[in-house]
Amino acid sequence: MTAEARDVLVLLPTREQLRLVVGVQATGRELFQQVCDVTSIKEAHFFGLSVVRNDEYMFMDLEQKLSKYFSKDWKRDAHEAGGRPRAPFVTFLRVRYYVDNGRVISDRTARHLYYCHLKERVLRSQCAHREEAYFLLAAYGLQADLGNHREPVHVGRYFEPQAYFPPWIIAKRGRAYILRHAPAMHREQRGLNPKEAVLCFIREACRLEDVPVHFFRLYKDKKEDRPTIILGLTLKGMQVYQEVNRAPELLYDFPWSHIGKVAFLGKKFEMRLDGLPSARKLVYYTGCAWRSRHLLQLLSASHQLHLSLRPALQRLRQREEAEEKEHYRESYIRDTLDLDLDLDPDPGGRGSLGSGGSSQHVPRRLSLGSADSCSSSHTSGVREAGEMAVDEPPGAEALHVEMPPCGSSSIRSGHGSEAGSRGRPEGDGRARGDASGPEPSAVVQVPLIRMRGRCAEALYQMPEAEPPHHSLDRAPPGTCRSTNSLYLVLCREDQLLEEFVV
To answer: Which SMART domains does the entry mention (predicted)?
Structure first.
């Protein structure tokens, strides 16, 4: 049985399919390496392999065997299937870590896959209060896919609206409206090369609050028949929604700098806020121990990547701001010269302002709200149209793998608590600025290190040999834990939750 091969179907963000062959004892890393080799992905750390469990995408631990993530048929011999051809096992290559600046991804193939993934997310987005953003995204998408608008070629129905607009916009505005107005916005992007159009699309797509985020359903207490809490892992932290009349409402929006500790005790999920008493914590239930383990690994790795990329993102932001200021400075000088020329009396009596000046210039880009203004819209908490898509894959019914359910049947009766204020802590929600003066930092078992106060450096280490359950160990005697550390803890059900002073 060890030498027997298995067919695996890998679905890419480009909607292409890879049919690969691996051994029955293969690990996720072996399959992932095959995918990277076939697709020529050089920066693979932004992606991961995922499977569908209970209508959610769950990322594989690449060090685990594939048999852990597929049905029992994986281990069965071919003759046990009665000679019938075995259906391939299905997995997805998806973006695991989001970034709002595409320049961080230097590999062309990886950036294209990232762009395609965001396009798919935009088609499922439900930000009804940002309708204009979808038209701008469609213009960037058309420019990236088709290049400059050409009148002889791009006439009539030269694109399909459903490939660039969410269904709710098509239903609201109609196909005729979109086909009439979208080409005009496409024409406004003339001169923007496809690479820059992709970067613009990534930037604007990440300003929609339900695009660069992973959603997971949680139970409010042990007695719930169905999960009503939605945990969102965002670019800068975590959000908590609650379903009210089947519509999600935002309860909390916490950046990493406001989260002091995240702990899992079996099916129990706790989040404690920085600077608040330990009694003021959020308590929810994952329903299954393997979901707790999955969330632990994803939260830990996402926070570490967030910290490691922050200096590079800051440098890119400063450079882009400098380039933008220089662009506006040149534009101002040019417009002033044009204005001076227009003020010169014309012997023919035709001297008038704007006869070729900047007043007739139509800007290429629409003026949209910044990322901060987009995130501030979360406080409204109510969407105008539809329910939030909680990472439920399209056509998942046909690709389901029979897995043990994580419903109310697996949750023991009891009473959970959800404590804490209903609003976010004081502050504007931005990460605190880092200043000079590094402070001592200790290496702990599964740390999430963040820079806070006057700390300029942070030390984080996640041992590769750590067992999957990430049991909790105390620090060696004589060492002190840094006050700049954010701890993420996973305990087995038979363990008591140990407390850390943050």
So the answer is: B41, FERM_C
